[in-house]
Amino acid sequence: MQHIICTEKSVVDIEIKANGFIKTEKDIFDVSKIWVGPRETLETNEDFKQIIPYVILSYQGKIALYQRTKKGGEDRLHNMHSIGFGGHIDAFDLAYQDNGVINLDKTIENSAQREIDEELNVSEIVSKQHLGYIYDDSNPVGRVHIGVVELWELATNEITSNEDEIHVVGLFTIEELKGFEGEMENWSEHIVNGL
Q1: Domains: count for the chain
Q2: Mean pLDDT (the chain, rounded)
Q3: Less packed terminus of the chain by CB within 10 Å, N or C?
């Protein structure tokens, strides 16, 4: 049984009032309201939001785009294009401050780095920037997830996939990415339209 990290939905709802990409440097989470629970329960419990790192990889102003293949685990996302790499924060991603309190920033970074390392071969990451959040209560998947959007700049344009579930399409400008509208997952479309 996989255990993942989530937060109480009521905490997020205090800070975020609209669906879509919320561009902000603000930390919206209350570490005292962070929970670890079984994924199978949390996937349908709308009292909680699973925290999902959503990392955009860029090189010289262009953003990596990939397509989710039919070999991926989430049927609802098959063949969709995406600019976000990441996934659920597993219990073993947890990092702690010296006083034993969860260090959520480091936990999110640990999870994001693990996912990137599992899914891709990329060059050195030269910078990391928090861009904001994805909040989408318009569908059952969105109602139980919140995306933490990060922009990681790469040293080179070399990006290849380690997994059959991901087909790297290439690097594109924001304007070029808008040409994939209707073919992208909701979260990616929200970000492309918000940048």
Answers
A1: 1
A2: 93
A3: N
Q: Can you give the CATH number for the domain in which 9 is found? A: 3.90.79.10
Structural domain boundaries, residue 151: 3-194
Q: How confident is the model over 168-182, as pLDDT tens digits?
A: 899 999 999 999 999
Q: What is the pLDDT of residues 75-120, one digit of tens each?
A: 556 678 999 999 999 999 999 999 999 999 999 999 999 999 999 9
pTM over 0.90: yes
Q: Kindly state the tokens that stand for 8.
A: 């109480």
Q: What is the pLDDT of residues 25-62, one digit of tens each?
A: 989 999 999 999 999 999 999 999 999 999 999 999 99
Q: Which residue has the tokens 């255990």?
A: 3
CA 169/CA 176 separation, integer angstroms: 12
